[in-house]
Amino acid sequence: MEPDDSPRVFSVSSCLTIIVFGMMIFIGLFFYFAVRAPGNSGPAADENARALMTVIPAPTLTPTVFATKVPQTLEIHYVSEDGLSVGTIVEVYGTEGTGLSVRPQPGTGGYLNFLAREGERFQIIDGPDSRNNYMWWKLESVDDPERNGWAASDFLRAVK
Predict the structure, then answer these.
(1) Is 36 helix (H, G, I), strand (E, B) or coil?
(2) Given pLDDT bands bounded at 50, 70 and 90, which one contains residue 46?
(3) Shortest CA distance to 138 belongs to which of 78, 95, 98?
(4) CB under 8 Å to 42, separation ≥6 — which residues?
(5) CATH classification number, 89-158, choose in 3.40.50.300, 2.30.30.40, 3.40.190.10, 3.90.25.10
(6) Helix (H) or strand (E) holding 65
(7) Whole-angstrom distance, CA of residue 104 vs CA of residue 129
(8) Where do the domains of the chain lie?
(9) Can you tell me the distance from the alpha carbon of 124 to that of 137, in angstroms, rounded to the nearest whole number?
(10) Which H or E run includes 55?
(11) Distance of alpha carbon 160 from alpha carbon 157, whole angstroms
């Protein structure tokens, strides 16, 4: 093939000049519209201008509560026909002034702890126990916890 000797329309130097000149126009227009565009008068135009910033809070951990097994106890308390049960406050009555024998164990064969006076108040802490044709309840004095023992229910009534 033979080399082409036809005259060139553009030379390499003229192409580079056109590219450099075009880039300068592009950069000039970019700064004109970006920095000096209408509605944006530049950073020094308004001294009291404030920027708006949206703050998105970072996610936080939600506390997790784990269920734990709590041992459940079921307490069943007997309630007599007279309304006596563990926890009931009772008073001594019907002894005709002789008092009620309070014993260390339920039954009529044990020793005597003390003699409860007529009208004295006690809390039932245990029972019932059926012995010697009586229903026995363990009592504790409302005034003195040291005064405790078993007494027959025939001489006790619930205090309301």
Answers:
(1) coil
(2) low
(3) 78
(4) 35, 36
(5) 2.30.30.40
(6) none
(7) 13
(8) 10-41, 89-158
(9) 6
(10) none
(11) 9
**With b meaning 16 or more CB within 10 Å and e meaning fewer, what string describes 92-119?**
beebeeeebbbbeebeeeeeebeebeee
Number of H helices, E strands in the chain: 1, 7
pLDDT tens across 25-42, in order?
999 888 888 776 555 555
Closest CA to 84 of 124, 141, 117, 142: 124
The model's pLDDT over 97-110, given as tens digits with 9 standing for 90+, comes to 899 999 999 998 87
Give me the helices (H) in the chain, please.
12-35
Sign of CA dihedral 73, 78, 82, 86: negative
Q: Which residues contact 88 (CB under 8 A, 6 or more apart)?
A: 123, 124, 158
CA distances from 42 to 38, 45, 48, 52, 64 (A): 10, 6, 13, 16, 51
| 3-class state of residue 18 by DSSP | helix
- The total number of residues shown for the chain amounts to 160
Rounded Cα–Cα distance for residues 127 and 107 (Å): 12
pTM (predicted TM-score)? 0.53
